[in-house]
Amino acid sequence: MATQQTRVLARVAVAPSVLMLFIWMIVPLVLTIYYSLNNYTLDDPTNFYWNSFANYKFFLTDPAFVKSFVASLEIVISVLVITVVGGILIALLMDQPFAGQSIVRLMVLAPFFVMPTVAALIWKNLFMNADGGLLTWVSQVLHLPVVVWFTNYPLISIIIIVAWQWLPFATLILLTAIQSLDEEQKEASQLDGAKPLSYFFYIVLPHLSRAITVVILIETIFLLNIFAEIKVTTNGSLNTANLPFLVYLTEAGDHDIGSASAGALVAVVLANIVAFFLIRMIGKNLEA
User: Fold this and answer.
1) pLDDT band at 168, cuts 50/70/90?
2) 58-67: long-range contacts at Cβ-Cβ below 8 A with a sequence spacing of 24 or more?
3) pTM across the whole model
4) Is residue 79 a contact partner of residue 159, using CB atoms and an 8 Å limit?
5) Is 226 within 8 Å of 164 (Cβ atoms)?
6) How far is CA 263 from CA 29, 60, 72, 131, 247, in A?
7) What's the rounded Cα separation, in Å, for the pair 241 and 247?
8) Dihedral of the CA atoms 57, 278, 153, 247 (nearest 10)?
9) Rounded CA separation 161/158 (Å)
10) Which residues cross the membrane (predicted)?
11) Which residues constitute the domain of residue 70?
């Protein structure tokens, strides 16, 4: 058992790391709160004064705020549906024995390791380019009209890119869960003559419930902060700017540090509300 002296030494040993972590987290937060309560623009930095909650009012009443909030929800919900449903289907296929299984698994997981900026450039220039992209070539071969993706379907294009990046993650988690399914349950269902759909809905899907919840939680946290894909493809035009990108436009475009700081805090609060409900959902799921 640890003595009082060893416990004190342990606390002293970790204190510098904890202090540095605290400073690293709290200093930016305090500065953001401070700037959000003041009028501060880079165009006129000398005109710096306390304006209370005017920045929050300006940001929340901006028509772009509602549009960016809706865009954030559309991106998150659409990507979650695509990755969870697609991840389950791919995981079921990858769980079956076939030749070259290891190579196929590596290829399926590869997109997850591609940087967001690189992934957006690949899709923008190689796949969705209206002049010579792969999808344009396929449309021409099939005698279909060429789609100008980032003009006609900008938000859908971003959703496709982000889903392509996160589908491997969902597949990996769900495949691991499928492979942990009790072999006795599989054999019992086969002996009982269970049909494939009944086997999936009554055995596989309930077994995947916890894994699906974890995928939803982790993906949501990251999907709320999508930025590079929007910046590279549409630069926030055509109603594709989400909340983080709106904060960026407020700072980079208007040079309004005060309003951008207020917007960043609003985005953090909304993200924490979403995370709170997701954690509660996971807790209930794990207790079940």
Assistant:
1) very high
2) 58/259, 58/262, 59/250, 59/259, 59/262, 59/263, 59/266, 60/266, 64/241, 64/246, 64/249, 65/246, 65/263, 67/239, 67/241
3) 0.88
4) yes
5) no
6) 13, 8, 14, 38, 6
7) 9
8) 30
9) 5
10) 12-37, 69-94, 106-123, 155-178, 199-228, 257-279
11) 65-287
Could you report the per-residue pLDDT of 54-104, keeping only the tens digit for each? 999 999 999 999 999 999 999 999 999 999 999 999 999 988 888 877 888
Least Cα distance to 155 among 64, 238, 247 occurs for: 238
What CATH number corresponds to the domain at position 276? 1.10.3720.10
The token duo for 12 is: 């002293």
CA–CA distance, 186 with 207 (Å, rounded to integer): 12
The answer to whether residue 218 is domain-embedded is yes
Cβ neighbours for 66, distance < 8 A, ≥ 6 positions apart = none
What is the DSSP secondary structure assignment for residue 145, as one 8-state letter? P
What is the residue whose two structure tokens read 């960016």? 68
pLDDT band at 5 (very low <50, low <70, confident <90, very high): confident
The whole-number average pLDDT for the span 164-183 is 92
The domain total for the chain is 1
